[in-house]
Amino acid sequence: MSQISPNPNDGDDDEDPIVAEVRRARTAIFARFNYDLRAFFDHLRARTEESARAGRKVAPLPPGNSLAQPPSAKKAG
């Protein structure tokens, strides 16, 4: 299981306030998915599919991008 560290720079007191705000937002987003990248990307994929069904334009991933297919759909070796 892929996971994101909740606090990659704990103790960095000289941090830029904008960087700190972005990191807090990132932590809040990933906390919703228990720091599980697969759960986060599954959520993004579902939102993209919902948008496409609702008639919104969704830019396709470039050909050959490994994110375009779930791991189970990739060809072996």
What does this structure look like?
The chain is an all-alpha fold. The longest helix has 17 residues, at 37-53. It has a domain at 14-56. Helices cover 42% and strands 0% of the residues. The two termini are 21 Å apart. The chain is built from 2 helices and no strands. The protein is elongated.
> What's the average pLDDT?
79
Number of helices: 2
Rg from Cα: 16 Å
Q: Span between N and C termini?
A: 21 Å
Give the ordered list of helices and strands.
Answer: HH
Structural class designation: mainly alpha
Low-confidence stretches: none
How would you classify the quaternary structure? single chain
General shape: elongated
Q: Give the biggest sheet.
A: none
Q: What is the number of E strands?
A: 0
Q: Give the amount of beta strand, in percent.
A: under 5%
Keywords:
77 residues; mainly alpha; 42% helix; 0% strand
Which helices and strands appear, and what pairs or packs with what?
Elements: H1 17-31, H2 37-53
Characterize this entry briefly.
With 77 residues, the chain is an all-alpha fold. The chain is built from 2 helices and no strands.
